[in-house]
Design goal:
Length: 354
Amino acid sequence: MTEFKPLVFSGVQPTGNLHLGNYLGAIRKFVALQENNDCIYCVVDLHALTAQLVHEDMTTQIRSITAAFLAAGIDPKKHIVFNQSQVPQHAELAWIFNCVARIGWMNRMTQFKDKAGKDREQASLGLYAYPSLMAADILVYRATHVPVGEDQKQHLELARDIAMKFNLDFREKIMPTGLGVDITVGEEPVHAYFPMVEPLIDGPAPRVMSLKDGTKKMSKSDPSDLSRINLMDDQEAISKKIRKAKTDPDALPSEAEGLKGRPEADNLVGIFAALADRSKADVLAEFGGQQFSVFKPALIDLAVEVLAPINAEMRRLMEDPAHIDAVLRDGGERARARAEKTMNEVRDIIGFVR
Ligand code: TRP
């Protein structure tokens, strides 16, 4: 083998409601990628325990992310959709990766520092090891491409570091198995069992900001529900939130340059552009010189047009949890078969008796 087979993997945590930022930044990309790639999309329920152990609505949340995947158009027959806890091989490989990763590497993870807050001693061990489990999610399928947000870039670099150290430390054991792939990393030829995963960060995904503060990311943890458009919001809610969205008193500029220093205007134009699959320049060519009293109703129409069908399908699916669970079980079974193949190879490379 001279190349790893391209495979897309990504995960979404079943915590909090999905919002427009998740849709435009992640789920819509997942849908686009399935046209030309083999894809695995995972509801990462084990990760959901890292920040908070007990979730009243864990089951509903898992189903709701799955419903969003399906409603947005992910095909669970051609690809794999499942929840992480159905494939124990993730946790098993994560254990091995815990022994590959160095404490110094984990200490550099900025998301851990953010999420742990001031009292780091009280953070769970799981939160600390989170990036190691994330690396295992991806590498247990030897996936090569991972669509994620900018904030996950450091975790993917760690996944590469873990893969690299595993490849180098076990080089002599990988060679005779014939399971390795000759790749070059920078200039260096490496005989690799695990691929160097590549983030897919670019593309049509804008940074979707809060509707109440154009300098803050749209977030499920923002206490104000008016700050975000949830995928479960109906037409009325969408329209109310856009009507109430913060703006400035000026008319829209005719060029993208004119959005500088106007974060709220920039955000609304960005959302319009993303929903319409157009560039901001193109949107401003149409709306430049217009007041928000004209632009907002157009944005409401567009948002409703794109989101209402997804919303309706999500609601329909949520009324049939048995169907959602069957999709996850089927995906889990297929994922497990692939993951177990990798684990058997990893066990052989390490030298475990089986
Ligand atoms: N950490 C990711 C997030 O919070 C979720 C995640 C877990 C993930 N495992 C993954 C994303 C594997 C991509 C690949 O967004």
